[in-house]
Structure formats: C-alpha cells, structure tokens
Amino acid sequence: MDDLAVVIDAIPSSQLVADDVTGNVGETVQLSATLTSAGSPLEGKTVDFQVDGAPAGSATTDASGVASLPYTIPSMGDKTISAGFAGDAEYLASSDDADLTAVNNVTTIGLFLSRYTVVAGESTVATVVDAAGNIITASSLLSIQGGAGGAWAANVYTSHNAGTWTVTAVYGAYTATAPLTVTHAGAAALDISPDSATITTAGSQTYTAVATDALGNTWAPAPGDVTWSSSGAGSFAGATYTPDAADAGQTLDIQGSLDGLDSDVAKLTVNAAGGVDLFHRHFHAVGNRHAPAFDRAGQVLVGPDDDLGRRDAFIGDLGLRCGRQMGQRKGAHRKAQRLERFRHCSLLPVAGIGPTVAIIATTGKARVRLAGRSERRSPRFRRALVDGFGSGRPRDFHSR
C-alpha cells in the first residue's frame, strides 16, 4: 500500500498595536490600533476597544490596517486602552494595550440648555462645555435653584413648579449658570372668591379668580380671560356684578369660566337697598288723614286718604313696629323722650319700588303730641330726624 501524506496549512498569526492617546477631559479623541500579519496590513477586520475594562465600541480596519474609534474623555486620570482582534478563519487573534492620559486644561466652562422656556412637566437638556468647546457634561455636576421642584435624569431636567429658576453646572473649581423659565400648564381647576357675600341693590360685588394646573401651580388669569355669569337679573362689568332691582331678596349663583373650564359656584345674597334715599313728608294730619310720602321718581307711596287706622298691621307688614301712644309720656324730659322715641320708630323699608324709601307713618294725635309747631322748626328736631334716619338727609322738610 502506498503511504498517504496529509499536509495541513498553518493559520498565520496577526499583530495588533494600540496607540497611546492624550486629551482634555470632555474632548473627543480617536482610539486607534493597527492590525498586520507578517508586516502586511489586514483590511476589513473588526477591532474591539475597551477603556479601563469598559466597552468603548468597535471599528473596522482600513486599507492600512488601522481601526479608529471616536471616544470622549469623561474624567481626569490615566486610563488603559485595550484593543483586540478576535481572529477568524484567516488569521489568529491578537491584542494590545495603550495608555489614555486625560488632562485638564479647562479655564472656564459654559452651560447651554436645549430649551430655556418650558411648560410645567416638560423637559430640557443641559450641556456643559469647556473654553475650547469640548463637551464635559458627564464630568459636571448639574443642579437647579431650590424651590423649582422637578427631577434630573443625567443631564435631562423635568420641570415642575412655575417660575424663573437658575440652572447651575459645576466642573472642578468652575461654575456656569443659565436661566430656565417654567410656565404653568393648562388650568385644571378654577376657584372664585368670595365664596359668599351679601350686598344691596344699591351696591356691587367684585370677584377674583385663581386657576390651578395639574401640578398645583396657581395663577390669576388675565383680565378678560374669565367669563362671568350669574343666575340674577343684573350684569357683570369685568369681574364686578351689579344687581338689578329684581335681584332684591334673592341668593344668586355666581360662576366663572376659563377656556371652557367652569369654576366653583359662589353665593351672592342681594337685599333691598337700605338707608334714606328720599324723605318727603308733611307733619300735619287731621284724624286718619296724613300728608303723602313719595319715592325718588315722585310717585306717591302713601296717599293722604290711605287708611292708617290699622296702623300696627301696616307697619308690621313693612317690618317695623313702634308704639302708638308716644304722646302719653310725661315728666321733665318729656320733649327729649318724644324725640328719642321718634328716632327709633319711623324708618320704614318699602319693598318693590327700587331703593328703600323712608317715610313717617304716625297717625294724627300721636303726631301732634310728638312734635309741636316750635319743635318741628327747631334745629334739635331736625338733628333728631337725621340721627334717626341714618346718613340720608331729608330732601323736603315741610311743616305747617
């Protein structure tokens, strides 16, 4: 039998040489290594790089056998570059180490934000650079002014509280700042105040509105942004409600609306106007006849022939009672007592005719005994009238 000869070709070896690198912190440098076999460059081969044992990426060799990978230096200190070729069917594996020296030539830093104005809940990205424009964000400490709330995730800040806040970057002994304005989000609730109020038909009520977004930011909407409404017959001018006479005796619902969002409901109680708007009365009567009382427009409220014989019922309906026998008081201070009694019993609110009108509703004998001719003309009597009826002053005071 002939001898059988088997020839196995050996796989050639490869040689990989990594290059040392020096750069500033934050600077992007090139990690490189050259792959050859027997002095000839190997093209199209994959070289893996690590820095201090952490994967940095891979690159493919070019026609010169050089694999190059961009790398940003994250921090100060000497580091080790490890380059490796895993081998293939044509060439055996090879590897090499090199030094990476990180230096700090920073003399100043800058801070930039991707957005300088955000709506509450939105985010902005912070970037820190050195004087040469090298990015040093990863080696910088980022923070935002106290009270801003929100949270950082690396260099991404998610906002919370509305306002203008200061973002700060610190790199070694260097500091940079940038302003960030956070505006409120859309209104999630609208509150109006006062919650309850009481006015008369002669007055008015002004309301305020406070809006709140979903994150709890509050603000006062601009004038005109809130639409006001009521269940009454009056009207709004801006945020001020002026009642109509028909609102008297009613408790109204008041509500605001902002961008389609309704507020809570406030209660407004409207009473008939108080005080003396008009006083026009003759102080002379015979029997049950008396002089008329008029309203502001000159309309007769109580005519001379109106029956005041049922005087208690009449005054009771108007909400005030006073004694009939004011003239029966005797004693040294009879005149002063009569004036005092007069002061307490003669203000009658008349509903249904607009502003309240004060009238005198005493009947013949009581009136004559209350104030004689000289008393009616005296300053003291007139002062008693003014004291008894509030700040209003009679428009027509006539006696005979």
How many distinct folded domains?
A: 4
Instruction: Compute the number of strand runs.
Output: 32
Q: State the major sheet.
A: 5 strands, mixed
| Share of β-strand residues | 35-45%
Radius of gyration of CA atoms, rounded to a whole number: 48 Å
Strand order in the sheet with the most strands: 2-9-8-5-6
Oligomer: single chain
Helical residue percent band: 10-25%
Mean pLDDT: 75
Poorly predicted parts: 275-305, 307-378, 380-400
Number of helices: 5
Shape by Cα distribution? rod-shaped
Terminal Cα span? 168 Å
Structural class: mainly beta
Describe this structure in words.
10% of the residues lie in helices and 41% in strands. It has 4 domains: 15-103, Sandwich (Immunoglobulin-like); 109-183, Immunoglobulins (Immunoglobulin-like), CATH 2.60.40.10; 187-271, Immunoglobulin-like (Sandwich); 280-398, no CATH class. Helix 2 (334-345) runs parallel beside helix 5. It has 400 residues and is mainly β. It has a 5-stranded mixed β-sheet, with no helix packed on it. Strands 19, 23, 26, 27 and 28 form a 5-stranded mixed β-sheet that branches.
